[in-house]
Amino acid sequence: MKTFNLPVEFLRENRIVPSEDGKVFITKKTPFYAVEDIRFITGKTPEIVIISDEEFNERLEEYISNINNSLEGENEVNESFLEDILVGSDTPVIQMLNSLFLKAVRSNASDIHFEPFSDRVVVRFRLDGVLHEISTIPLNAYSQVVSRIKIISKLNVAEKRLPQDGRIKIKIGEKKLDMRVSTLPTVFGERVVIRLLDRSDQLLTLEELGFESDDLRKYERIIRKPHGLVLVTGPTGSGKSTTLYASLLKLKTPRKNIITIEDPVEYQIDGISQIQVNPKIDLTFANGLRSILRQDPDIVMVGEIRDIETAEIAVHASMTGHLVLSTLHTNDAPSAVARLVDMGVEPFLVASSLEGVVAQRLVRKICEVCKTEYEPKEEEIQEINRNIGKELNIEKLYRGKGCENCLGTGFKGRVALYEIMEIDEDMRTVISKQPESMSVRENALKKGMRTLIQDGILKAVKGITTVEEVLQVTQV
């Protein structure tokens, strides 16, 4: 029964009701720009009929009733996707947006940025973690672009003064995309960032992430423990969630009860119960974790340890027969110990519960199409040796020249660098007595821990990435 795909909140706030025969009913209080939005959305000029407030209320109630009736019997109302954008549209703005979405997906972009300035609007894609300018939009057309994005992500079109967050679900051929939309008012207009999640992509396995063979064996040994706390650390966008998902895929069996609490749930894994954090109803990490522990879990994954309450519950859960996987924001693996202690967890509890910490970063991979080898200069070799603390005999390194396949960047795709700290009895003693990062780090290095920069240089020598990329990502 819905003539236009418009949120009821938008209709009620702007005093608009569409009808089945293409007419649009408005009142004297309807703002003129709202009618323009209708014209923009439909690509047509509807017949406008002015009605009284009383008649508007009646028609709106009837419209809402028709929507509810049409939704009865649908099993996945919240999972409904917009029509396939490859089908196209008559409206120039919709065509332009669809074209941008298509280009972003084909180039494997993770984000689309719309950035308004005084004379133009710049569109940039984040490719392999780096922003690249793709095109510009004329200022006089940008308001229509923002309106279209707000409509399909069910945001308030009329609200231009406050930040808003929404979601879009679209199809491109057989691909199903989840897009998280964020708007932010700036001096020159609303800035929009769209995060792309390809729901049809297969989750990566541990073997595909970039672990060296000895590190992979060490990490699998850690997560196979029957109980304890395992932490994955690193800054935002370093691939921590991907590592946790790959870990759950490795651990998943019909004999294990695995429950996660995440913010947000980025990928759904068959056979695992996943919970979405919802602060509006007080479903926080801490409250959700308490409830999960009453569900007789074997393995629990907590999206992030953000506060002392969550940290203490996770630690106690790991000491009472549960394997707990989670993330922290620290620069390296040893710093995770100090971070937990700084949050308020007693050092002896950290020492008793912690089984392992993995720090990670993402570096860009050299494009296989234009990869070339070169002889490194003496200064470059000295820089490498200085950073890893030992002398290496390096005769050749690799880089990408830039081609169509990598859009001239010389890089295509990303791989993770890892630093794995396994906790043994000796390390537990150090953590209990001297939990500061330096002491923990010294002990870990004595035990043979490969640092992030050492792992990166190893990958650079193998021709997977470049030395410059490794140094840029790992030096803090």
**Portion of residues in helices?**
25-40%
Shape: globular
Rg is 26 Å
Mean pLDDT: 86
Spatially, the strands of the biggest sheet line up as 12-11-13-14-10-15-18
Question: Which helices and strands occur, and which strands form pairs?
Answer:
Layout: H1 8-14, E1 16-18, E2 23-26, H2 32-42, E3 47-50, H3 53-71, H4 92-106, E4 111-116, E5 121-127, E6 130-137, H5 139-152, E7 164-172, E8 175-186, E9 189-198, H6 213-223, E10 228-233, H7 240-251, E11 258-262, E12 273-276, H8 285-293, E13 299-302, H9 308-318, E14 323-328, H10 335-343, H11 347-353, E15 354-366, E16 371-374, H12 378-388, E17 397-400, E18 411-422, H13 425-433, H14 437-446, H15 452-461, H16 467-474
Parallel strand pairs: 2-3, 10-14, 10-15, 11-12, 11-13, 13-14
Antiparallel strand pairs: 1-2, 4-5, 4-9, 5-6, 7-8, 8-9, 15-18, 16-17
Helix pairs in contact: 8-9, 10-14, 11-13, 15-16
Structure described in brief:
By secondary structure, the protein is an alpha/beta fold. The chain contains 16 helices and 18 strands. The longest helix is centred in the first third of the chain and has 19 residues.
Describe this entry's structure for a reader.
It is a single chain. Helix content is 36%, strand content 25%. With 476 residues, it is an alpha/beta fold. The protein has a seven-stranded mixed β-sheet, with helices on both faces. α2 links the parallel β2 and β3. α10 runs antiparallel to α14 (437-446), α11 (347-353) runs antiparallel to α13 (425-433) and α15 (452-461) packs antiparallel against α16. It is globular, with a radius of gyration of 26 Å. The N and C termini lie far apart (57 Å). The model is unreliable at 70-80 (pLDDT under 50).
